[in-house]
Design goal:
Layout (H helix, E strand, L loop, with lengths): L15 H11 L5 H9 L14 H8 L3 H7 L3 H8 L2 H9 L6 H4 L12 E4 L1 H11 L24 E4 L21 H17 L4 H8 L6 E2 L2 E2 L1 H15 L7 H9 L7 H11 L19 H13 L4 H8 L3 H11 L12 H12 L4 H8 L3 H10 L3 H27 L5 H7 L1 H10 L1 H7 L10 H26 L6 H7 L14 H14 L2
Antiparallel strand pairs: 1-2, 3-4
Helix pairs in contact: 5-6, 11-13, 14-15, 15-16, 16-19, 17-18, 18-19, 20-22, 22-23, 24-26
Length: 519
Amino acid sequence: MSTVLYTPRIQPDETLYSYVARCQHIWGISNSRSIARDWFGRASVSINQVLPIEINKIADWSDYEPSYLLTNHTLLDLYGIFTGRKAAIENVMLGSNAMSLANISSLSQVRLKSVGYSCVCPICYSNDVARIGVGYWHLTHQFNGVTACPNHQCKLVQSRTVSRQYRVPLLAHDYAHERAPEMQVMFAKFVAGCVQQSRISSEAADDAFRRSQNCFRRGQNLDIKSLLHLLDAIELGLGVPKVVNEGHLRRMIREPSSPIHPFKALVLRFALSFLSDDTVVAPAKARVGVTDKQAHRCESLLRTSTYSMREISRRVKVSVGYVKKTGKRMGVSIDERRQTITPDIERNIKDMAIEGRCRHKIARKFEVSVSAVEQIIQSVSGLVVWRQYLRLLSKRNQGRKILLGVMKQYPTHSRTQLRKLVQKEYALLYKFDKTWLFESLPANGKRQYHGHKMWCRRDKELLPELKGFVRIALQGEGALPSQYEIDKAFGGHNWFTKSLEKLPLCNRFYRRVKSIFLP
């Protein structure tokens, strides 16, 4: 028999999880399986606070359009902008299969400890109770990293929630709220504004919303260090762990259309909002190479042997170094400085450069300037690329030597342990000498199962807590709690119902007490 009496109106900024929980609370239903069976045709349905599923069926029961619920009571628009998968996420949310929701929406990209918790503002809760008689979960309070109420500027209270058990928030009537730090309040207001902005459906607006500002650019390069320092300060002020690393940062700025979790993107935009437009340095001039017309005119003037290098540089509007390099390649005599570079010295400089010697050592040996050595090197076609190859070869050999030395010093270390000891050399060899690296490294050992150690440690940690819980239950109620009650009190992990044999100390204690009180 259906338990549905009537469906109340959904409240502003209410999550759909909260709406289902409020219906269950108003109808006086204590078991979430009953309402799930009536509404969704299944005994257990997991409903996420920000990206719920079964919206079609919720819309049928509540007399709302699915599009209205998706836009105003979920974060579909925000996730759709930053992941580029709005249609795929919407199809999953309208249906009943939540298995692929985490991967499609990039929910699994954030390593925050807020999974399994929902947040409530004490002042919002009091106002909701005074207005409609019961509190509810607000959507803007459930976004990752939001720990303050954007309206009342107080700290949010975290409450343990289970996505398959629909519960409304419960706080004491005289719960004392605490003012949140200014940084957390600013971020909460910023997120609330971004949520409202994301609901404006416009392709141009979405593209502008996704792209970041360009205030950290120096010419064509990114000042990554400055931006990372700023992000570290922002994350410290928000009280969240390190979630945006250098790889995320480069991808968000250089590839703004690539899928990314909205929290990472909004942290970057929030950090950039602290920079005013006045601090932006004027953009550097674009680098322009020598055109074919300039090169042809430079060669023509050099063949005439009439003008000096500086005069040719002024007429053609190229550097003196380019004129000198072009003249050497053409074999045209040019005016040198007073330092004497004979053909023998030039030949010896080229020979040493081909061997890969350092420019400073070559200049010191022949008593010439480093720039003169560089010009001679550049005058030989392909010599610069050859020297770069020799330099890379030298780094490779040095990396091999260091890795072999470490392997000799630590013969029992695994590949992972060796990589941690020589990260720089390992990365170089992995990129340019992968075949030799894998042949030289020790073979991968079989993966060992360490679950037994984890259960032993858990057994020792839970035993004192179990003794205290049983003692309090016997003193208060005079009855021994069941395994289900113990497991529920310790978090509902099924440790005491399905895996008690893996906790020998706790199992022995419970059976001994059970034999005394339940003969």
